[in-house]
Design a protein that fits this description.
single chain; alpha/beta; globular
Length: 211
């Protein structure tokens, strides 16, 4: 059986994964591995949202990128995960405020747009898991999961916290982040870290769904 070993771990909770509805925003280095993990764990009702195409620079860290050069990511990934739903659009602040997230049990944020992340926190914090910066780092052991106000070691995360405070936002939601200081100034990426972000996001999602 395809999911037999997952069922051995989750037992009756496996049905909660089968019944869950998840929307995953961004399927790059972090989101691609999160998608793969969710799908292999038995979550089938997944909607992915992205606007980009696979290019050569993605091949060091993004799932399936070497097989789909110049193809739209959402369409390419649907070939490997045929049960998923896709929305080919850029996730920006306006889209977040306009989109109806009510039907989803979890909103997984693997995008880079600061304003969109802030809007997601304000609108979806009760069911949001968000990723901070995974680039510029090499030590996968320093990837952590905690609530937004306990994150540290990431300038991007610091900016998000600052902007949320400015908006009077005091709620909590889960964040995947690294405590490792950036190794370089350039936006270099290492799959050991980006994949760890994505797998931690998946793991946290499954933890929440089992409650």
């Amino acid at each position: 059986m395809k999911y037999e070993r997952v069922k051995q771990l989750l037992k009756d909770d496996f049905s909660k994964l089968e019944d869950a509805k998840i929307i995953l925003l961004g399927v790059g280095g972090v989101g691609g591995f999160c998608l793969d993990c969710l799908y292999r764990s038995g979550v089938k009702n997944i909607t992915i949202v992205d606007f980009d195409t696979f290019d050569e620079t993605n091949q060091n860290r993004q799932m399936w990128s070497e097989l789909h050069l110049d193809e739209i990511k959402t369409s390419a990934l649907q070939k490997h995960y045929p049960d998923i739903k896709t929305i080919n659009i850029r996730v920006d602040e306006d889209w977040v405020w306009d989109f109806n997230f009510d039907e989803y049990d979890l909103v997984l944020d693997a995008i880079d747009d600061t304003k969109a992340k802030l809007a997601l926190a304000q609108k979806c914090h009760k069911k949001l898991i968000s990723s901070f910066g995974s680039a510029k780092r090499l030590d996968a052991s320093q990837v952590k999961v905690d609530d937004i106000w306990k994150t540290y070691g990431d300038k991007f995360g610091s900016k998000i916290r600052y902007e949320l405070r400015k908006r009077g936002f005091k709620k909590k939601y889960k964040v995947i982040f690294s405590s490792e200081e950036a190794v370089v100034k350039e936006k270099g990426s290492f799959v050991g870290v980006t994949a760890t972000f994505g797998l931690n996001m998946c793991s946290e999602a499954i933890k929440i769904l089992r409650r």
